[in-house]
Amino acid sequence: MNRFEYFAPVSVREAAEVLQAHPGARVLAGGTDLLVQMKERARTPDTLVDVRRIPGVDELRFDRKTGLTIGAAVTMRQVELMPAARLHYAGLAEGARVVGSFQIRNLATIVGNICNAAPSADAAPGLIVHGAKVKIAGPNGRRTMLVENFMTGPGRTTLATGEFVVGIQLAVPPPRTGSAYVRHTPRGAMDIAMVGVGAAVTLAPRTHACLDVRIVLGAVAPTPLRAKAAERMLRGQRLTGELIDRAAEAAAEEARPISDVRGSAEFRREMVRVLTGRMVSAAFGNAQGQSGNKRRAA
Question: Contact, 114 vs 134, CB < 8 A?
């Protein structure tokens, strides 16, 4: 591991000033990705900025008007176990649950998972299907943007020099909304996704037709990918097994997988088809459960 300077700012302003003064700095919250990368010399930052002393970064709160607030230091384990997250944002809670081991999830953060910007990030599909926004602070003030647009490529985000993510905000899901997430890995645990699929379905109040739907594919493109053609096939329709199967085929066509040592592009595309069908069906079932004021397991 290379030598580096260490800062532990106690305010957003101080953190932004340090990051601006040290363009090669990296933000530290959980460190489960960053420290491994540093040990392997995949990243060699000259400065680490530990944001865990900044007030508010540990906030995890659900409000029935404003939705779910996730601070930069909130861990996967906290989100995994939060009753409101499991009820209203099941796809996100499931994405948090499958990351690493208990020890990893007690350190790894939701925000760090997004800022690491791996195409296989397990938190990303569950955030994107719920329209989550990142809250960014920097020397020029604060801004927000959709998580969907935040990651620009493997290991790359829209953050400018001096900026860092202070948290994530998810709106309250519309009534009769359910979501789900699943991934396929070569091993049952302690592995990264070969393919991940998240889905969210909102049902119309009387007809229970699909009022809205979002499908996000992970690990099959440079960034998490919305399967928009598949979404268009389902939106406004009564969801049947046959229609879901056709949408799953469309999602597989939209995927842009590569072949590597972990699996072929053809296999990944087939897994997109299988898992999309399962997750749309699971989200549909969860939405029906929400309609009955109870949650059905994905």
Answer: yes
Phi-psi region of 78 (alpha: psi -120 to 50; beta: other; left: phi over 0): alpha
Report the CATH fold assignment for 60-170: 3.30.465
What are the beta bridge partners of residue 144?
A: 135
> 183 by DSSP, 3-state: which?
strand
**Grouped pLDDT means (10 residues each) for the chain, 298 residues:** 94 97 95 93 94 97 97 98 98 96 94 96 98 97 98 97 98 98 84 94 95 98 98 98 98 96 93 98 95 43
pLDDT at 292: 58
Q: Which two tokens stand for residue 178?
A: 């359910």
Distance CA 218, CA 197 (A): 6
Q: Is the dihedral of CA 156, 258, 147, 100 positive or negative?
A: negative
Tell me the CA distances in angstroms from 67 to 61, 84, 85, 143, 166, one per residue in order.
Answer: 8, 10, 10, 18, 16
Using DSSP's 3-state secondary structure scheme, residue 210 falls into strand
End-to-end CA distance of the chain: 42
Backbone phi and psi for residue 277, each to the nearest 5 degrees, phi listed first: -60, -45
CA–CA distance, 211 with 239 (Å, rounded to integer): 10
> Selecting from 2.102.10.10, 3.20.20.80, 3.30.43.10, 3.10.310.10, what CATH number does the domain 5-50 have?
3.30.43.10
Using alpha carbons, list the distances in angstroms from residue 146 to 128, 158, 292: 8, 11, 30
- Contact criterion met (CB below 8 Å) for 115 and 156: no
Closest CA to 290 of 227, 200, 229, 226: 200
